[in-house]
């Protein structure tokens, strides 16, 4: 993959202030992309924006709750107003919930279900809908699912359901947007070394952090970012409607 294949492309990233979103923002900027970053974390957005600009990159940021379509629309409109177009998007914003890996379906509260589905499923819908309305022909969108997009979870059912929704929504969008050359794909990370996973580790939730993989380790955010960059670039121009586990072989 050519290091400069994203030169001049305007790419929006939700969840861009930490974890995989932050790693993706750094990598795409280093390859010449112009970025619009959304997150709930204002301080995190300010920090990454300062870093990118100090390295000669271009970026705009906006605090955004992806559950709110008006905020999502304002974020994407800001990007287009600033840079004149949208070439690609990465929908990284997501949560595990307040009680991850603690409840089965029969134990799960409606409050927890609605929180997780609201961010992960509805948030992705809000983002994808607006992005498809403005993205250039031939653009590329990457939605972030999970290894639980293709598996069930006895004690994390709302998260699994929300990530299944991301996959179904993305494949449907790939079919409808293909006539414009717009591609929509899903990555399905396994356990990755991010702040969200660190919270689980601190809670001693072994089932969440010690998933067996042939490679015997967690993934790194930079490894996820590298594959996202591939899906955004021209080398993947015949790939759409696909899901890619990035899980160290856990799903093998």
UniProtKB/TrEMBL annotation:
One of its GO terms (molecular function) is oxidoreductase activity. CDD domains: SDR_c. Keywords: NADP, Oxidoreductase. Coiled coil: none annotated. Belongs to the short-chain dehydrogenases/reductases (SDR) family. Pfam families: adh_short_C2. It comes from the Eukaryota. It comes from Exophiala mesophila (Black yeast-like fungus). This is Uncharacterized protein. InterPro entries: NAD(P)-bd_dom_sf, Sc_DH/Rdtase_CS, SDR_fam.
